Amino acid sequence: MNEYSNVKKVIGVVSGKGGVGKSSVTSMLAVATQRLGYKVAILDADITGPSIPQAFGIKEKATGTDEMIIPVESKTGIKVMSVNALLEDTTDPVVWRGPVLSGVIEQFWNNVVWEDIDVMYVDMPPGTGDVALTVFQSLPLDGIVIVTSPQELVSMIVEKAVKMAQLMNVPVIGIVENMAYFTCPDCGQNHRIFGESHVGEVAAKYGITEMAELPMNKKIAAACDKGMIELFEGTWLDKMVEACLAADNPDKHDGMPQPPEGCTGDCSSCGVDGCSSCH
Fold first, then answer.
1. In total, how many domains does the chain have?
2. Contact 84, 50 (CB under 8 A)
3. Segment 103-140, tens digit of pLDDT
4. I need a labelling partner for 58 at 20 to 30 A (CA). Which of 30, 138, 168, 250 fits?
């Protein structure tokens, strides 16, 4: 991390599969944390599916120099770095291979001027691919929050995410079950559209005590679609935010090392003594 940045706590938000609302949960965690008076940032590591700027209604592009990048900010001051803040057209696909994607995460960590941040949430891509490994192995994660949905199949996928975190010595802070139920506007009863949840069984198996349930709520979906997630109302994630603030991983990494001065990034002709940035 550069001399202009100081990030005190880093929380990864992960999911074993796509389509469970991981980015919306990341956004809501960031908003709820900032409402408590903390300085918050989001590093959007979901490079091929970046949706954080959309949720916050951010249309501005990141600025900077050849060496440093200035992140964009939401209306309430949450700092965001996403590949969509660099693309000329936000609908352009990101068709890059794994090593290039991992290199972008390295740049987002090392070359963005984050300044003083109390809590950074990292919106990670689904699954256990190259980018997820880069974040797990290189960023100083204090813990992760797993986002899932209630289907029985998802229990297996949640276990995969938990086991990956264990392999990387990163604590699992808690599990957020999105789309857990629907509250009928007529009778006021909660109906579990996808059936009874099995996520609690996985949490108990691995000693995960913090859990949160998010309802199927059209207001949340509309807020994300309209770029107004900072206006969401609800206390569903308050205890999860408290757990994130209390998270502390004694085994966390120091973060990605900066390449030595003069490094070209071309390991076949670098010639810089002590350069190991490509290994």
1. 1
2. yes
3. 888 889 999 999 999 999 999 988 767 778 888 888 99
4. 138
